[in-house]
Amino acid sequence: MSVVTVGVHIVDILTRPVETIPAGQDTVLVDQIRLTAAGAAAGTAVDLVKLGNKVTSMGAIGDDELGDFLLMIMSRHGVDVSLLARRTGEQTAASILPIRPDGGRPSFHVPGANLSVSLADLDVEVLRGARAVHLGGMDVTFGLGEPAFFDVLDSLRERGTIVTMDLLSEMPDLLAMARSFLPHVDHVLPNAAQALAMTGADTVEEAAAALLADGVSGVLVTLGEEGSLVVTAEGSTRVPALEVEVNDTTGCGDAYCAGFLTGLLRGHDVVTAARWGTAAAARVATGLGSDAGDLEGIFDEGR
Where is each Carbohydrate kinase PfkB domain found (predicted)? Predict the structure, then answer.
């Protein structure tokens, strides 16, 4: 299946387990340190490839060493990165993630070149050739929130292209801006904090209803260990999480998006596709980083 991911590309530097930040220049020994391709576009692209899709990723990175690494590791996973724009003098977005023993992940983040992504960076003809387009992190790619890009999305959907959208931040002002995309996408996949901040609602059920009223066909709110809430015009369904030993929650949202979209592309309904997303997220949670875990076999788990 041909998929294009558009938006945020990040290099994650992860270490675990971290219980405290050492004082002064003290050293703490840890079990593992990894560098991975991450972000709501790059991380989802890697998982989509692992699920059997042909994927091209679009966005912007710096001309620095981190950008070189991101191109290398995404290519190694099988993602077509030939259309990623490189910004002279800008830094590639990166995060440092000290992973707690319970899988929690505070972060230190620099947004870098993601902030400058615009329609001029995208190959519209390649978008038109895709069966699905996933928008990752539209709340921080400010240059894409313009009528010209909305027109492109509308034209894609008229051609039968599936358009999904995920978010990156939990900042109300940024999420309010991203809400303008909703009339132009099919499915939006926020986490609970994002859905509440995006709408000002008191409950995730109320938030999902408000987002659905903005024109999307489906709202899928991820709820961590409580699974996800799937809301469409036909009603709402709770999809439970799978019980796994959680090592790191980094990238679980990206994996959910990848599993969900793959399920749709295989012809499944929204709730069944959500189960595929749940299975992919559970597998990623057992490792370290957004590319962790072998995603083979999740189709059986997601049935």
Answer: 14-291
